[in-house]
């Protein structure tokens, strides 16, 4: 995989022609060598027009991110046949995600050009007909596959044969397309599998007059300018990040000339630029946008070369400081190099360097981090602060399929974690005293429908304490919950400092005499407190009550789950078989299992 990434870097693809050449070289490399990656993806692309180059642009993007990707591209304008025939190539390919691009002209056919020959009632019936047709496509697809589905809405026309009278029509073409887009949004708003991609918004961002190269449209039925394919592939990648647990967790921010204008150590509290003035407003509104990210679960950290007392004065006294010190889960304010500080931030938060996003106005600092810590995503910050907000908003690095209550509370939870560390330091290193003083309570729930999104999220994101690292979509977790031969057990943790939320999960396959732990995981936020022992101990009690003799499971090693390697032996499981790929374990339930007397367990 590294050789392929170096190949992409050397070509620096920016045009579709580059992507076409690179995609073929990548396919040849994959065919000739045993290319491996722990991130694998199968995506499909169906379109109503010629789209050659779009799949290749996304394929190159995937391999550049270390994803071993394979793609299926449907035949030209055969989307209906592909979607409604469960024996089609699409279903045989079994993709993880499907992108569907159908333009409004294809949906309406000849009625697109004779739209105003229809009376308003006929147009209303046509709207119902086309909304039902799309619902049939998407409903059939989502019933036959667990894949995520991304369906384009439709570009709202900018021209009309009626000119200025267009808006005087009852259900004119512009209103028709807007209404159809509204139907799509409302129909699938609460669906966990189907997502509506705002193609009309994409067209507006790039400029609707630049969407089509009309020469290529008439020559090859290309209804989207190929020069936009790399940009569209980048937007598609926003859906792949959460699918492959690539969504970033923490935004690390500089302070001077980043969160405010000027240098606090030189300009003083009154001299920095922040607030409702022409010079201060870009920083003020940037902070307001950042606060909305924090409220959605993005962790914040500070990495600044500064005097801490000066910075604390800004947090405490500046009237327009939107972000407060409690919004930051890790703070490195010193005169060390930024790369060393980033390592400490990752360590303190117990997350990987690849979960960090670094935002710093200084190009020297950015280059230092890029060269020494390539795992960290370093944003190319524009020189003009007026573009900061658009830059972070357009990065799509924090996209997720769902925002759970745990996400909304994540910033507060990490602040509470700081307080736990302070308590640990006060106990003088006596870990048992520290753990007892935490007053930990764990609450278990079995087959809780409301927990499904969070359990799926945990399987996608949890790496360190995850014995099998199996990733499951919401649809798959829902199937486990409804299947009597499985149980999905979720875990919530509270202590004297607050509620850590739903932070653990187990998926159990039940048989008459043995239960198999398909999945057993715990969020890194609650590691080091023996919670995993109390959790598994209660599952063992459930099994005993059901008359089960054995618990079985396996440990499947990855680059990141070393903390879970010895968990089963430490709990009392015996090793049954060991291969380089996995180690199989069994626990005889007639034997006593570990207990943790300072953790209260509730069901």
Describe the structure concisely for a colleague.
With 603 residues, the chain is α/β, with parallel strands linked by helices. The chain starts with a helix and ends with a strand.
Descriptive tags:
603 residues, 5-stranded parallel beta sheet, 24 helices, 19% strand
What does this structure look like?
This protein is α/β, with parallel strands linked by helices and 603 residues long. The protein has 24 helices and 19 strands. The strands form 3 sheets. Strands 11, 12, 13, 14, 15, 16, 17, 18 and 19 form a 9-stranded mixed beta sheet that branches. A 5-stranded parallel beta sheet has the order 2-1-3-4-5, with helices on both faces. It is globular, with a radius of gyration of 27 Å. The mean pLDDT is 92.
Distance between the termini: 46 Å
Mean pLDDT: 92
- Described by the principal axes of the CA atoms, the overall outline is globular
Report Rg: 27 Å
Q: How many individual helices?
A: 24
Beta fraction:
15-25%
Helical content, roughly? 40-55%
Number of strands: 19
The poorly predicted ranges are none
Largest sheet: 9 strands, mixed
């Amino acid at each position: 995989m590294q050789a392929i990434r170096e190949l992409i870097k050397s070509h620096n693809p920016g045009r579709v022609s580059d992507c076409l050449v690179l995609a073929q070289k990548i396919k040849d490399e994959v065919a000739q060598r045993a290319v491996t990656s722990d991130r694998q993806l199968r995506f499909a692309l169906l379109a109503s027009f010629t789209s050659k180059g779009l799949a290749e642009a996304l394929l190159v993007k995937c391999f550049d991110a270390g994803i071993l990707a394979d793609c299926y591209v449907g035949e030209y304008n055969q989307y209906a046949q592909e979607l409604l025939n469960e024996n089609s190539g699409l279903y045989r390919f079994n993709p993880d995600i499907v992108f569907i691009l159908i333009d409004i002209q294809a949906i309406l056919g000849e009625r697109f050009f004779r739209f105003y020959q229809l009376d308003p009632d006929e147009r209303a019936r046509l709207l119902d007909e086309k909304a039902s047709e799309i619902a049939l496509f998407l409903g059939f697809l989502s019933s036959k596959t667990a894949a995520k589905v991304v369906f384009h809405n439709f570009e709202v026309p900018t021209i009309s044969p009626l000119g200025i009278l267009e808006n005087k029509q009852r259900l004119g073409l512009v209103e028709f397309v807007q209404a159809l887009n509204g139907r799509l949004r409302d129909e699938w708003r609460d669906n966990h599998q189907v997502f509506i991609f705002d193609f009309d918004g994409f067209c507006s961002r790039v400029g609707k007059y630049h969407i089509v190269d009309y020469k290529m449209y008439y020559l090859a039925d290309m209804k989207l300018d190929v020069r936009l394919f790399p940009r569209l592939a980048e937007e598609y990648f926003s859906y792949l990040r959460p699918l492959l647990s690539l969504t970033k967790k923490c935004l690390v921010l500089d302070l001077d000339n980043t969160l405010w204008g000027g240098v606090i150590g030189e300009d003083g509290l009154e001299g920095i630029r922040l607030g409702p003035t022409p010079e201060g407003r870009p920083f003020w509104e940037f902070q307001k946008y950042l606060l909305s990210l924090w409220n959605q679960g993005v962790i914040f950290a500070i990495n600044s070369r500064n005097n801490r007392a000066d910075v604390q004065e800004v947090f405490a006294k500046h009237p327009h400081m939107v972000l407060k010190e409690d919004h930051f889960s890790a703070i490195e304010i010193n005169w060390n190099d930024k790369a060393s500080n980033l390592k400490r931030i990752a360590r303190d938060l117990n997350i990987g360097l690849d979960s960090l996003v670094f935002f710093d106005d200084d190009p020297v600092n950015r280059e230092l981090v890029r060269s020494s810590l390539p795992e960290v995503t370093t944003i190319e910050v524009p020189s003009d602060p007026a573009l900061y907000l658009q830059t972070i908003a357009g990065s799509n690095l924090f996209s997720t399929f769902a925002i759970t209550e745990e996400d909304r509370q994540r910033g507060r939870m990490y602040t509470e974690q700081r307080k736990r560390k302070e308590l640990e330091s006060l106990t003088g290193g006596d870990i048992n005293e520290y753990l007892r003083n935490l007053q930990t309570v764990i609450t278990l729930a079995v087959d809780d429908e409301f927990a499904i999104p969070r359990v799926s999220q945990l399987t996608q994101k949890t790496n360190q304490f995850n014995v099998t690292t199996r990733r499951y979509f919401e649809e798959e977790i829902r199937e486990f919950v409804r299947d009597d031969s499985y149980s999905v057990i979720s875990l919530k943790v509270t202590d004297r400092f607050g509620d850590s939320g739903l932070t653990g999960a187990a998926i159990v396959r039940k048989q008459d005499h043995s239960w198999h732990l398909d999945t057993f995981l715990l969020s890194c936020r609650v590691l080091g407190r023996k919670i995993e022992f109390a959790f598994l101990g209660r599952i063992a009690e459930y099994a005993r009550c059901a008359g089960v003799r054995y618990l079985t499971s396996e440990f499947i090693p990855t680059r990141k789950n070393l903390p879970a390697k010895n968990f089963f032996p430490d709990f009392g499981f015996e090793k049954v078989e060991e291969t380089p790929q996995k180690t199989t374990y069994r626990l005889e339930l007639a034997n006593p299992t570990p207990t943790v007397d300072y953790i209260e367990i509730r069901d």
